[in-house]
Amino acid sequence: MRSSLLGSFCFLTGAIAAPAAFSPAAFDQNRGGAVLKAPEGDSFASVTGTFTVPPLTGTAKLSLWVGIGESTKQNIVLKGGVTYDATYSTFAAWSPNMNNVTVTTSAASVAANDTITVTVSVESETSGTVVLENKTQNKKSTQVLTAPLKFDPVRLTALTADWFVQAYQANGELVQVPRFGTIAFTACSATLKSGKSVGATGAGTFEIQGTSGQIYSKTTVTADGISLARTSM
């Protein structure tokens, strides 16, 4: 089964929120979370975040991931995290070309209620590293990933740090966002190429929006964490 962990994004506003503003910066039909934009003239070297895997059952399809994107448009993202599609697995990938997914479950297995820390680093314009640590099971995976050849290195600008909860599609199925309760990314931080470390403060939020305009999530950003609550549908 080929699945899309990234899907199509729907940007209804054009800018990420300013550092002091936590109102929604964008809406999407299948994902919620936050995006931190690098200061002018700088870019991200690494990003990290920790989350607890929610208990999911049935036909739910969900991914939780941390990543570095080329810009607020999220056309190129290096990321890693956990997916659920009947069973749990861990992964590292360049998106949106999901032929480049590296499944890391054998090294870093995962189950509901496990605590996972993901650290994504960009070493160059064409390569990066994804480290997944299962703190509960004391397991770790380190993957060095080379960008797909079709990606123009000039575009790998590492201008955003990302923390997301995302439903995805498989075999053309419509996106169905499961009721995952509240998911918190804690100990969120990022290191800029200038050497400065920053927290999540100033990140713009993404909210899940239905086709009729209803909002089905509530994202809250604090200095070191991002909380995403799934509201009623």
UniProtKB/TrEMBL annotation:
Check the record and name the Pfam families matching this protein. Answer: Peptidase_A4 (PF01828)
Q: Keyword Signal on this protein?
A: yes
Annotated Gene Ontology MF terms?
Answer: carbohydrate binding; glutamic-type endopeptidase activity
Tell me the InterPro entries matching this sequence.
ConA-like_dom_sf (IPR013320), Peptidase_G1 (IPR000250), Peptidase_G1_sf (IPR038656)
Q: Which UniProt keywords apply?
A: Lectin, Signal
Domain of life of the organism encoding this protein: Eukaryota
Residues spanning the signal sequence: 1-17
Instruction: Give the record's GO biological process terms.
Output: proteolysis
Membrane among keywords: no
The cross-references to SUPFAM superfamilies, in alphabetical order and at most eight, read: Concanavalin A-like lectins/glucanases
Cite the PANTHER family for this sequence: ASPERGILLOPEPSIN, PUTAITVE (AFU_ORTHOLOGUE AFUA_7G01200) (PTHR37536:SF1), PUTATIVE (AFU_ORTHOLOGUE AFUA_3G02970)-RELATED (PTHR37536)
Specify the protein name: Concanavalin A-like lectin/glucanase domain-containing protein
Which organism was this protein described from? Clohesyomyces aquaticus
